[in-house]
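Fig. S4 source data, part A: sequence.
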Amino acid sequence: MAGLLSLIRKGAKEITDKLERLRIDVIEETTETTKFSSSLECQFFPEEFSDSKEVEYATIDILGMSHPIYMWVYSGERTISFPIVLVQEFKNYEFKPAPEKAQKGIKKYIRTEDIRFVIKWLRRLTYPFYDVVDKAYPPPLLRLYTPNLKIGYGKNLNMLYVYMTRCDVRYEDLYPDNTPRVAVVDVEFIETRASGEKFLRDRFTDFEDLKLVRR
């Protein structure tokens, strides 16, 4: 991430290459309670991406043995985290495909993003909402698209259903009037399932692309 931020601070021409790469999409899922959907296409593909999975075992200590006996209890959380770099090179916000690329279906964006808007959009995904009788509904279910990483399962290898669990903001550079120029949003998600989906991940059936043979 330091490399990308250094290029941004210098206004280096090499940043153009990064703007042409694939992006991660965060999509707010429409549900029966929210009836609402919106999405964010990240300005850059992150240079760092963390994917961790926990498994819980119980231990039985036996006198005289060199190791305890391990008994599997359950598989724990799968956590996805990465930084979202935001750049606002021009305070007059504009974000659109270049005309010469539009016909080919290739989006090439200019080097500016409305940082304050994006931060609020991301941070709101950690909040509930309340109806007219103050009944609380939880933060939204999200779809996380990660082109070519193949961190999903089955037919959706590039997509996971997730909840956001962390949204931390660092302002790396400000204009003289305190308008953000460069910011980094560290986000964290936990894997979950779609509404109504059977959520029993199997090391064979959910990893068919590995072509494993069950003995």
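Fig. S4 source data, part B ends here. Residues 2-210 form a domain with the Elongation Factor Tu (Ef-tu); domain 3 fold (CATH 2.40.30.200).
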